[in-house]
Amino acid sequence: MNSPRRPVFCFLFLIVIYSSQAALNLSLESIVHSLINRSHELDSNDYRAESLRHKRAVATSSPAPEEYEIEIEISFENTSLLESFKAYYKNLSFPIQVINTNLSTDILSMEITTVCRSSGNEMLCSCESGYKWLPEVCLSNLTCQNYQHSAPEDCNCLKELPARGPYCQQVILKDITLRMSVKLSMDFQDDLRNSSSALYRSYKTDLERAFRQGYRILPGFKSVVITGFSPGSIDVAYNVKTSKPTPAQMNEANEQVKRLINSTYKMDHLSFEASLDNETKFSIVPEIIYEGDTVMMKCENEVQSTNVTWRHVERSTDIQNSSEFSIYTYLNHQVSVSILTIHNISLIDAGEYLCSLTYDIFYYEGRKKVNVISTEFVASEDLKVMCDNNPVSLSCCSGKDFNLSNIEWNQEGLINIPGISSIDSGCSKLTIKADGTQCLSGSAGTEVFYICSFLSGYGANSSKKIKVTFTSVANITVTADLIAISEGQNFSIKCISDVSSYDSVFWNTSAGTRINPKFYVTTTCNDRAESVLTVNTATREWNGTYHCIFRYKNSFSIATKDVTVYPLPLKHDILLDPLEADVPCGGFCHLRCCINEAGDYRVTFQIDGLSFPAVKKAQGNRVCYGYSLNTTIWCSKTVQPFCNFVNSVGESVQSTTMTLYLVPEENITCQDSNIGNGKAGKMIQKLCQFSDIPNNSGHGVGGTITYICEGSTWKVKKNDCIAAPINNLLGLTKALLMSPEQEEKLLTYLQDLSSSTEKVENEIKSSPGNLKAIITILELLSTVPTQVTSDMMKHVLSTVNVILGKPILNTWQILHQQQANESSRLLDSIERFSRVLHEGISAIPSITQVNVQMRGLVTTAGQVTDYDQHFVFPNSNLWGHVIIDRHQIESLQPNSSIVTLAYPTLKAILPQGTLDKNIVNGLVMTTTVSQGVTKPFRISMKFKKNDLSLVAPQCVFWNFHISNHTGGWDNTGCFVDQVKEESVLCTCNHLTSFSILMSPDSPDSNSLVQILLDIISYIGLGFSILSLAACLIIEAFVWKSVTKNRTSYMRHVCIVNIAASLLIADSWFIVSAVIHDQRYLLSETACVASTFFIHFFYLSVFFWMLTLGLMLFYRLVFILHDTSKSIQKAIAFSLGYGCPLVISIITVGVTQPRNVYMRKNACWLNWDDTKALLAFVIPALIIVVINVTITFVVITKILRPSIGDKPSIQEKNSLFQITKSIGVLTPLLGLTWGFGLATVFQESSAVFHIVFTLLNAFQGLFILLFGCLWDKKVQEALLHKFSLSRWSSQHTKSTSLASSTPVFSMSSPISRRFNNLFGKTAVTKAPPCSDGSLVGCCSS
What we know:
The chain is α+β, with helices and mostly antiparallel strands. The strands form 16 sheets. Strands 10-11-9-12-21-20-16-17 form an eight-stranded mixed β-sheet, covered by helices on one side. Residues 840-1004 form the GAIN-B domain.
């Protein structure tokens, strides 16, 4: 190739040469130049595959024509010829025939590929449109200055013609599919939806023919296919397969289509649209995106346009430049580049993004789905680590797709304890191990924060802090003083840890028995912790060694302390004889103090400071110390001797005192060597051990027996003796509560109690003392356990079965005469046992006895069923059924136990309490849950009636806290759901012991009266609410007409607030009735709210009546004193709502904490317990008295006005209306609640109830009639609004006509008496109206 310094054209000829010879020998070497070898062809897919292509056609008759592509270089001396040649070339028509003698040649096409022009001292060789230099040519030659920023291998212009190699080569255009559409301005027909219809085929054939002819001029055109028709006129969708055209080529082709298409199709020439697929290069950095990253999306198109739009597809919104998004679009040579940058990307930014470019009629788009990975990860909870060299792992865990290798661990704190990181199961873990040398000695805990941090490298970052408290192994110190005490004294041991952190603290005996937590208290200070073991009454069981143990994780720190307890009787274990006695003056009295142990004590009797040595005498296991006292020196006195025990270390204990009455010998009438002496009528108590009561069991009996001297004989007044087995067990039980080892002995004690109770059943029948002792033992033992086994519960119920037997019921009656709450104590004790029955067992055993049965259930996570238990007592002909819905049980913690016990005879011994006429008429059933229930817990129970003749069933529970904590039946939270002939279904919203109460009364007139009262109440309240609503509507309608002066304005303000308050109060009354009737589980809370609002708004009615009265009094008495409307309103609202609010809040605040705010059977103020109803009645009645007084004062003032006391006519009319309202409504309201107060008393007449209900139900109607419609201004305003114009004009002229006088007007016959009373006389001529006068002020 030459390197000319003159203009050069390079032509590419496509010629076909025809020859008549069989073998053609044509030499074209002078003009044909091989452009590229085979290697060039394989390396470039973007250029023509063959620069020199030889095609042969096979024919049988003649040689085939040969086709050649020839490059020709033409040089011009004169540069002006370039343009002339190019113009000449464009006008050529092909093919061009060249005929020679031996061959015929056709030139099919000719293209200009390369043009070289002079530019100063340089020759610039550029490629024509559709051609490019080969990449290797670009790399081996200098490119033009305009292209220095493009890729080195991509160029269109060189600074000189290459010395070797081909000229510019044609760009091989790949096939693309243009998705196009055009609109036909024709009505759409449904047949165009059906591709098999004739219309569809006709349209398709015609249009495709025109499209093929028009688009064949596009470069590389292959085909055109119509894909469908859609409405919107008619939208034709079609695909054109071709090489990528330029906009000019596309517009030219569209113009061609317009000319070719039949005019009947009415094509819209401006509706052509074309879009290209897969022409947009879309890239995203980074590929994995984390929340908080800065993300860059790049959209590239080989189009010279910057008309690029970005869109978030799911949000259906275009993206604009903002603080979060930034868009930068520019042209890089012939490539459009648009970059969308998302700063600090969030999870909501995830989704599909669309980049679209519009270039002429072309539409390019690229789509990418963006997934954003959350940087949230879950870190370990804060840890406490003991510095004992045991490894501990910290972790930060994340969801899927999270690159855990980007997580780094750091730490902050006073000490440096590094760890080893690892990745395991979606978590980054750090394993740390601390020993004593790394932790601060004696520290209460050193905090180190371990931070797991995530950095993506593109801006996303996240971190979590885990607080690890390193605690050194505790050093424990204990009380240094020697602890040596005697029985009955107290001691304490203080155990101090120099570290404040611990998981648990407990005390053990040397044998490993854990001491009951009630004996010690543990507290924590800033830098230490201490536990103090305190024993108030030491027994010899406390003699030994004790271990104070602080546990932290798996580390135990222990300190020990020895305790020495010397024997000494406890005060309550010293038995005295006599307890009291009459002693003849000057005689001898034998005193003795006994203990049930053989100890070495020095015992003396002390009397008035004198000490007398006692003589020891052993009687089996009992040791007595006696002394014969000569009473001569104490004649006519009462002396109180006691015995003093001194042990080996000099510690002493005094017994309780005996009481000796020294009387003249002649007054002694009863004498007995065992019982003692006494005068007539004397009652004395004596320990049963020292009485003459037969005792076959030896010296173990307990309790007391009371004797009375009748005549000359001692007779038993009351026998409270306790059988020996029971008494011994009672003593052991009391000692157990003071013992360090309690739970270990509990099973044995309960077993002994069960067997002993069965043995002494006959003694229980005869002595209430035995029964009381058994109840006391059960009560004491129920406070011991933290868990109860099934064996323990069997022994408890075996004991209960005996003492609830029918033969023992008479003993219960005697015991209740002495002490009323023994049955309540028994029930409370059994409940405590049942609540701790769940620990350590997988199922609740069923226990069946004659007088008690137990059933239960242990809840299991994921296997919750209804709780459904049946109880049948054939001997008592009673049964019961307990049901708890599974949804209630699901609210309990897993492995909770539900236990129900049923008793057929307990109903006979529980006191009836305040519900005197009612009788327990079924089983008593107790249901408890091991885990505390903090919200309403619905339980249903069905009871078989014991006595079918009883009526009016109530569902009740045993409330241990009422009746001064002696217990009683209460119906709060319990409701009757269903009553059948022989059973009652109850529902309660809490758990405890339940039963049903029924009344022996027959359904007489009382029930009929109640039904009548209910009917009157609901009908009356309906009328009342409608009347009050009508009153408020009327007031709103005539407000401007009737409030022209200040007095009238304030009157109507009061009437509106009276009506509104009563309307709200009546509405709350209905709400409270619905709450009570429907028995909602949350009815107690709702009932409190209802009671509060009823109380508040009923009080507001009366206080607004008081405001009305005080305003009337003020306007008539203080005529010359004028107060602004705003001040009057402020005072009125403060009095009308402020005072009721204060009274209501005080009432609920004082009574609700004690659960005595409401009545038990209604949502209204309590009367029986607290008289809370007086907080309503007293203010109401006081206001009635005040208003009645004001009414009389006002009437007197009007009838006898003072000189100068002449308010304006308008004011006087308003005052008349106020006086009428007060004069009528106050007595009505006061009378209503006067009858209401009478109904709270017992045995009140049904007449009071009926009258109160009638008056109360129709209060709203009274206010409508007497507070609203009775007002003449209101009547005139209503007539003015609704009457015909003729009637209005007549009424304006004269209001004296009978035909135009309203029923309740001041001039009607009905109210003429009131007019005269208030000093109003009829006038036929109206006075002139002044400015600002009232509507109707000129009427008579």
